[in-house]
């Protein structure tokens, strides 16, 4: 499996990202926090309610070194987001501190017990083993990364978990986030939502935006923790403060649908706008729907078309079908059956049933049959 870039590996996110709270067919992308506060991605089969991160990454090799920071926000805007909660509403209830179960100060013997480098290992791996056996959290983390990705050594998720755990117990946020993900997905260990929640929470408290989003997801679902929508909103908000597009989108969904919070279209519009401006296709589509319906904002067909077009141009079938309907009806744009047919064709090609029917009707009308 893929994992975090090794410490010292420069990595840059070059596209937007998202977290979907609705299962989708096909494939999604799995993400890890990198040492530079960015994310690495790997394609994986979609499996029920899960996260999709639409991004690309660039790698630049660098020396093994300590991480430059612990705040992991790949799409940071640097913009402070002010939130006003209803008067008297306690959205931040007390939350127990996670515990390391008395294992935070394991001796060097724990690392030595993991054995020697595999035969034929390159010098870099041998050097990491020496440092890891002396208690270096960064070296332990790097070994976890290499064993999880199969780079330089044969892939071994179970061994990756052991190295991540040693580094995580020393408080390395990146290791905590990766260890949580391993438990979340059952990679190298049996799937365990409770342990995943524990390590996500520790990484979230350490400033990992990705872990904050995942903690929010678990609180929202009641997976590994007692369901607590207030805590879900809290952690989505913490991630949003760091510029997480996934957090923007999920906060918008919560307020738009009233999922555990009072329905509030104005707040939903605000969060959709943040996510849409970052290129999140579903946020753009949902924002367009809100403008079209006048939900939380004055009804505006032109603004609706603008956002539907942006989402449609990214390949979102629902938005392509919406553009077809706009052109067919002349709402927000001049009526144009040819353009309507073209957009319907694009959506139909992705399996959109309504678009397929619209395309057939428009083809028949325009052919004069």
Describe this structure in words.
The structure is a single chain. The strands form 2 sheets. The chain has a two-stranded antiparallel sheet with strand order 1-4. Mean pLDDT is 76; it is low at 2-98. It has 15 helices and 4 strands. Helices cover 50% and strands 6% of the residues. It is mostly helical and 369 residues long. The termini are far apart. A hairpin with a 5-residue loop joins strand 2 and strand 3. Helix 2 packs across helix 3.
CATH superfamily label of one domain:
Tetratricopeptide repeat domain
The percent range for helix content is 40-55%
- In spatial order, strands of the major sheet run 1-4
User: What is the count of DSSP helices, taking H or I runs of 4+ residues?
Assistant: 15
Low-confidence stretches: 2-98
Average per-residue pLDDT, rounded, comes to 76
Determine the N-to-C terminus distance: 55 Å
Order of helices and strands: EEEEHHHHHHHHHHHHHHH
Portion of residues in beta strands equals 5-15%
Secondary-structure-derived class = mainly alpha
Major β-sheet annotation: 2 strands, antiparallel
What is the β-strand count?
A: 4
């Amino acid at each position: 499996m893929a994992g975090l870039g090794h410490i010292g590996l420069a990595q840059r996110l070059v596209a937007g990202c998202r977290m979907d709270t609705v299962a989708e067919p096909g494939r999604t992308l799995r993400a890890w926090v990198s040492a530079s506060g960015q994310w690495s991605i790997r394609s994986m089969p979609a499996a029920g309610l899960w996260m999709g991160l639409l991004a690309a990454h660039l790698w630049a090799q660098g020396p093994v070194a300590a991480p430059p920071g612990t705040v992991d926000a790949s799409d940071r805007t640097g913009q402070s987001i002010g939130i006003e909660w209803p008067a008297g509403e306690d959205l931040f209830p007390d939350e127990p501190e996670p515990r390391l179960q008395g294992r935070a100060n394991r001796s060097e013997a724990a690392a030595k017990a993991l054995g020697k480098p595999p035969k034929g290992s390159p010098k870099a791996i041998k050097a990491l083993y020496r440092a890891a056996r002396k208690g270096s959290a960064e070296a332990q983390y790097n070994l976890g990364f290499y064993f999880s990705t199969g780079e330089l050594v044969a892939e071994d998720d179970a061994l990756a978990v052991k190295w991540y755990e040693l580094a995580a117990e020393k408080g390395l946020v990146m290791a905590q986030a990766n260890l949580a993900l391993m438990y979340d997905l059952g990679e190298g260990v049996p799937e365990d939502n409770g342990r995943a929640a524990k390590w996500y929470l520790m990484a979230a408290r350490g400033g990992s935006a990705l872990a904050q989003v995942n903690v929010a997801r678990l609180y929202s679902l009641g997976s590994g923790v007692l369901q607590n929508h207030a805590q879900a909103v809290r952690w989505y908000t913490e991630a949003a403060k760091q510029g997480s597009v996934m957090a923007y989108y999920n906060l918008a969904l919560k307020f738009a649908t009233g999922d555990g919070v009072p329905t509030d279209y104005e707040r939903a519009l605000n969060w959709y706008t943040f996510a849409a401006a970052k290129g999140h296709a579903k946020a753009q589509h949902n924002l367009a729907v809100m403008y079209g319906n006048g939900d939380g904002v004055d009804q505006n067909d032109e603004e609706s078309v603008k956002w539907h077009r942006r989402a449609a141009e990214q390949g979102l079938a629902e938005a392509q079908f919406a553009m077809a309907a706009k052109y067919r009806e002349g709402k927000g744009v001049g009526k144009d059956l040819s353009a309507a047919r073209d957009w319907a064709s694009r959506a139909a090609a992705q399996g959109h049933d309504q678009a397929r029917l619209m395309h057939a009707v428009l083809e028949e009308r325009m052919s004069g049959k």
